[in-house]
Amino acid sequence: MKRLAVGVWLAFAWTEQPAGDCGDSDSSHARTHAAVEIAPARLLPPHPHPLDLAGFRRSLDLAASSSWESPSPPQDSNREAAGRRRSSLWWSSLTNRCGRMRGPVRWAVVVVVMAMVEAAAGRFVVEKNSLRVTSPEGIKGKYECAIGNFGVPQYGGTLHGWVEYPKSNQKACKSFEDFDISFKSTRSGGRPKFVLIDRGQCYFTTKAWNAQNAGAAAVLVVDDKSEPLITMDNPDDAGTEHLENITIPSVLITKKLGDDLKKSAENGDMVSVLLDWRESLPHPDERVEYEFWTNSNDECGPKCDMQMDFVKSFRGTAQILEKKGYTQFTPHYITWYCPEAFVVSKQCKSQCINHGRYCAPDPEQDFSQGYDGKDVVVQNLHQICVFKAANESGKPWLWWDYVHDFSIRCPMKEKKYTPECAVHVIKSLGLDVEKIKKCVGDPEADEENPVLKAEQDAQIGHDKRGDVTILPTLVINNRQYRGKLDKSAVLKAVCAGFEETTEPAICLSEDVQTNECLENNGGCWQDRDNNVTACKDTFRGRVCECPVVKGVKFVGDGYTNCEASGIGRCEIKNGGCWKETRNGKTISACSNEVSEGCKCPPGFKGDGIKSCEDIDECKEKLYCQCKGCSCENTWGSYECSCGGKEATSAVGWSFLWVIFFGLVLAGVGAYAVYKYRLRSYMDSEIRAIMAQYMPLDNQEAANQHHVAHAGDDI
Ligand SMILES: *[C@@H]1O[C@H](CO)[C@@H](O)[C@H](O)[C@H]1NC(C)=O
Ligand SMILES: *[C@@H]1O[C@H](CO)[C@@H](O)[C@H](O)[C@H]1NC(C)=O
Ligand SMILES: *[C@@H]1O[C@H](CO)[C@@H](O)[C@H](O)[C@H]1NC(C)=O
């Protein structure tokens, strides 16, 4: 059994897939339960490389686009059974999305299929809502229809309208404008129009988009053959550009009902229909349990983007619901296992952990480059463990913050998809790192990981849920949600899961306020000293974004660092740069002329952030190197005197002033000495002359006279 499954996988890996016809006429194979309508021209091109595992990836994204019915599922739930189920997913990648096998692998698959039918593989549940025809009399009654996996089904509500079958463009593969057809109500108060569209030729989503643009309120796709209802899915690689914008509900109805409706419409009867989603979800009590089956891989194209967009937009709502006890949320992750005989193969080694027990497809489908499947498994495991730790500490809603932050801080694109990066995120959310490390365990060990084992078991359907085979999948009250992954559409569905009249206020109005920055600063960067934080509370939950404070812009990742930048940055905490004051002199490494960074000013060296140190110009012999010079270092400068004569160079203003005053004083002194000596000389000359004519009786009096005279003179 195991060998067969492996055989198929390898056959797939080595088989080029030819483009083929995708009509729905081939019914010799088992029934398709989810389908994507594809125009023949848009079928997958032949794969250029034999090891191209596009299909393998598809088995993750759109796994089991076909699955096989079985009368009674076996009761054993050990690894064997889970493995068989999983191999059915692998196997499904062999089929094209119309559920049919191609070319050379067909025979091998048939053999395996029989083995799997015997083992009772996956059970895919088609989620339904009810449709009531209220007129005309002849076909009045209640019918079932299958909810499409796009658009917005009105969970918990009803929609009443007239049915119209267009005269042309009946498959709605082209714009109705080209045919001059509109379904808009011409008069106010007119009932909305439901458009009847035939299956085939193009994607279901294209049909819905064209009908919506023409003004239809809902789309009823009529199956083109008599068969049990299937789930209409959206394409995973192409034609997704308008997926996000489909807001009307789409349902698939049986060929029989479709034919009856068409006949009545063609007869000119008014066909009135009520679409009812009130019983599509069980709503037994006042708490809704829901699960999100997801994946940490951020590079799988539109499906991964859609998944992340949903986490980002729904996070705030999910956290409010969880905190108030209205919901119990659990995230889940799908893994595969590698058949034992292949545990040592290159493929299994790069895609699996714990010796082939838990695997995920390679993100780029190339084993030789980028991240491997096993990196994805390890990150998925981190996310489950974060949820477990958060749940144990009574704050299960932290999972939303973790997944959101991880996708921003550790993306594959930037080569940050590593366990180390995960640890940074865990720390910033204040979770117990050791506990999570213990839960992750050793990915190289040859043993079970209880957490991933439980996930594999949970993957298998129970009660009404069915196997989870489409990623991402939302399960609400144990039923798979169908419709687009969009905040308001999902909230509507969650709200439909409450017992009537017990819905929380958020179901009635969406503007509920909390401030998530109050606790632990939301795990964002902050500078307490300056009262600056990167945490911003928005209605979608908190975001970590560097702020603008007093006109100064901060830049950084918002989680671990933010730095002031641009004009005025030195006003705030000196732009994060070094600054010191000594003897009334302040020196800073921040300059407003430079938009970022710190630089020590001349005369200092260092990183400019933590420190700038004075350069000892004398010791380093940078300046003042003349013979007989004496050099003295000062803070930020130096003083130099050469051979007794004072010389200046690169010295401060104060020193120049000292020299200036010195020179002035010396000049004044010299002048005074000169004057004094001149006068004493004249004195002695005069005395000598006078002594020749008169005796010197009173020398002192004469002296006094001269001093007084000299005083007048000065
Ligand atoms: C979908 O809607 C968004 C905004 O509502 C718009 O920007 C975008 O162009 C739309 N896409 C298409 C394909 O119409
Ligand atoms: C989370 O915690 C609640 C109560 O503490 C518990 O009932 C629930 O089973 C836990 N969920 C998981 C997945 O461990
Ligand atoms: C910090 O700033 C916020 C607003 O930016 C203000 O409301 C708060 O009072 C400030 N706290 C302190 C301690 O200055």
From TrEMBL:
PA domain residues: 189-261
The entry's keywords: Calcium, Disulfide bond, EGF-like domain, Glycoprotein, Membrane, Repeat, Signal, Transmembrane, Transmembrane helix, Transport
Keyword Transcription among record annotations: no
Location(s), subcellular: Endomembrane system; Golgi apparatus membrane; Membrane
Primary localisation category: membrane
Signal peptide: 1-15
Residue ranges occupied by any Complement Clr-like EGF domain in the UniProt entry: 598-617
Membrane topology: Single-pass membrane protein; Single-pass type I membrane protein
Alphabetical GO biological process terms: protein targeting to vacuole
InterPro entries in the record: cEGF (IPR026823), EGF_Ca-bd_CS (IPR018097), PA_dom_sf (IPR046450), PA_domain (IPR003137), VSR_TRX (IPR056858)
Key word Heme present: no
Highest taxon above the source species: Eukaryota
CC terms in the record's Gene Ontology section: Golgi membrane
TM region(s), chain numbering: 650-674
MF (Gene Ontology): calcium ion binding
Vacuolar sorting receptor thioredoxin-like domain mapped to chain residues: 288-495
Similarity comment: family membership: Belongs to the VSR (BP-80) family.
Designated name of the protein: Uncharacterized protein
Organism: Oryza nivara (Indian wild rice)
